[in-house]
Each structure stands twice: as C-alpha cells, then as structure tokens.
Amino acid sequence: MKYTRLEIGGKKMTEAQKIYICFFILIPIISILFGWYISKFIMLRLNPLDKNSVVTNNIKKDQKIYLLQLGVFSNEANAKVLIDNLKKIDIYSYYYKDNDIYRIITDISTSSDSIEKRKNELEKKGLKCIIKEINFENKNDLNKDMYEIVIAQIKLKDGQVSLDDYKLISEQFYKRYMNDKKMENIIKYLKNYDQAYKINSSQEIISALIKNVAILSKGEL
C-alpha cells in the first residue's frame, strides 16, 4: 500500500497515523475547548458583568454605622486626657464634636457582630464602653454620595468590599466634586483615608473614618 508521507520533527508520518492523531487526540481537545467557550458565552449572556451593580450590592442603601464609644465629655481638654491615658495601654481612640459634647471613639464598623466582639474585648480589660448606632437621612445628592463613600471606606477596612470596588466609588465621587470649591476640605479628609489605607496604618484608618463620619453627620471637627 502506498502512503502519503509528512515530515514532522525529522520523522515521516503515515496517513493512518495522522488520522489516528486527529480522531483520538486533537478532536477531543478541540471539543473540550469549544464546549468551554460556549458555556462561558452562555453564562455571560445570562449574567452580564456589571461592575456598578456589584458595588451597589455590597454597599447597602440602608446600612447602619456602629461606633464603639469609650466616653463623652462636655470639655475638650478632658476628652484629650482620656485619649492620652488610653494610649498608654495601647488602646487608640479619637474624638469628634457632636453638637456640644465630645465623643471618644475607638472603633467603627457596619457590622454589629464585629463591633460587639470588640466591645467584649475591651470590657474584659475593665473598660466601660457603649455601641452608638448612627443612621443618616440622605436629603440630597451630596449626602447620598458622601454616605456611599464613607460606607465603602468602612467596609474596605473590614474586608467586606474589594479595593477595586472602593476605588470605583471614590473615583466617581472625586470626579463629580473635584471642581467644587466648597468640597475641597471634604475631599482632603476623604483622601486622608486613602493615604492611611495605602500605608496600612490601622490607627490612621480609624482616625480618618471617624473624621469622615463626623463630616457626614455634620459634626464639627
């Protein structure tokens, strides 16, 4: 029998060998790849990737903020004394002015379980603390946007949203308000959080978050 020969790697391959390779090796591989492509295409059609919807699902519109409060003072000097004393035992706290009082805060979260766990840890050390729950009324677009970015910052701190999700929200906020002169200080405080996260400083992250919540609740810094 006469065969047509093909030169591969210096060796000659018969027609029968080529048919064998095609049917028993190449065709199954091609079938698998084709099936994978079809399944991915169908999944994308059924579940189109929408980055904005992913972020929206992670940032609930009715999300509450929980502050772990270690004290309340009517005098700023007394608030600073408590903060200094806590620092001596490696507990970092920060204050913000809420109307006529100064609230001493050591942690912040959108998770009631997380903040409750931290409360129990501090109480075992003999520290008295309460959980302050904050709800915001979003009356205008700025309040809504501020609320969304602060919630995203808290969730990023707690590992509940990705850095990419947070960047998407923050970049949209900065783009919308970067040319508004009235927003310069607010954007500066928001970016303080970005810097703290970048250098991975938990103390600075909490400090920045508390300042941003103070802005959001219209407290005085």
UniProtKB/TrEMBL annotation:
Swiss-Prot/TrEMBL keywords: Membrane, Transmembrane, Transmembrane helix
Taxonomic path: Bacteria, Bacillati, Bacillota, Clostridia, Eubacteriales
SUPFAM superfamilies: Sporulation related repeat (SSF110997)
Organism, as annotated: Thermobrachium celere DSM 8682
Name this protein carries in UniProt: SPOR domain-containing protein
Keyword Membrane: yes
Record field: transmembrane: 20-38
Keyword Kinase: no
Pfam families: SPOR
PROSITE patterns xref list: SPOR
